[in-house]
Specification:
single chain, 181 residues, Rossmann fold, six-stranded mixed β-sheet, four-stranded antiparallel β-sheet, globular, binds inosinic acid, binds magnesium ion
Amino acid sequence: MEDIRIHDKTFTTFIDRQEIQQRVQDIAAQINHDYLNEKVLLLGILNGCFMFAADLFRCLTVECEISFIKLSSYQGMSSGGNVQTAIGLKESLKDRHVIILEDIIDTGKTLYSFLPELHAHQPASVKIASLVIKPDALKYPIHVDYSGFTIENKFILGYGLDYDGLGRNLPDIYILKDPNS
Ligand code: IMP
Ligand code: MG
């Protein structure tokens, strides 16, 4: 596949759609196994998780519901700023088995700042599923229970992930190309 240009940067193919679908099915199989005879509430963190959430949800066979919230702490290519809940939590989470869905966990700040608010609703359990994790970028103690891909600390886009709003529609995941390559 060819390189693509988004805003001022060049990106190259990194994880193709078949590989993504395979890992999503693997995660779904783990969840179907772990929550057999339980009822699950998936809680997707918008915007980035929507493709992962849709594909994962289709593969679940356990009794499940899905809801979305919006948190925001990311601008351009560096994580920062204050975490805020832009779209609030409407579901009752009390005594529910919640699985948070993230597209990617970078520093972990977004989720780390949100977890106390989540736990205040007294869910029965909370687990985290992230399509991608960047362990070298992690700065907050976040335990990810289900992860699709572990990558080095580089910027990626596609399959829901954006670079300043663009690139979410790409079916494959692309990585920022080294300017010297
Ligand atoms: P964190 O709070 O630093 O863990 O950042 C998490 C959020 O930043 C993710 O949910 C993404 O929306 C965004 N993000 C982190 N890394 C990337 C990346 O490589 N590409 C696109 N978005 C990213
Ligand atoms: Mg996100």
